[in-house]
Design a protein that fits this description.
By secondary structure, the chain is mainly α. It contains one helix and no strands.
Length: about 100
């Protein structure tokens, strides 16, 4: 009978130990799930920021293209003016 009581006591101690391990594992799992949710939220925020930056980059590219084209036209006009001035100077030099 005493052997049976010892085995029951050992089994009870093992059950308590397993229960404590289960509680710790559940707490660790909950912490990992919370960390995962936080990482997922951060990932969503970063993806949204990337999308915003890509849109901003596209706007800047379009703005730069719009600015470059008038400069080219202005440059062409300046070249034409300089050519005309050179022609006038040559006309003055050649009577």
């Amino acid at each position: 009978m005493e052997g049976l009581l010892e085995r029951i006591g050992a089994a009870r101690a093992r059950v308590q130990q397993l229960h404590a391990e289960g509680v710790r594992a559940a707490a660790a799992l909950e912490a990992l799930e919370a960390k995962s949710r936080e990482g997922s939220r951060e990932n969503d925020v970063l993806r949204a920021r990337i999308k915003e930056l890509e849109q901003e980059n596209e706007v800047l590219r379009n703005a730069k293209a719009a600015v470059v084209e008038p400069e080219r036209e202005g440059t062409k006009e300046k070249i034409d003016e300089l050519v005309n001035e050179i022609d006038r100077c040559l006309a003055l030099l050649n009577p």
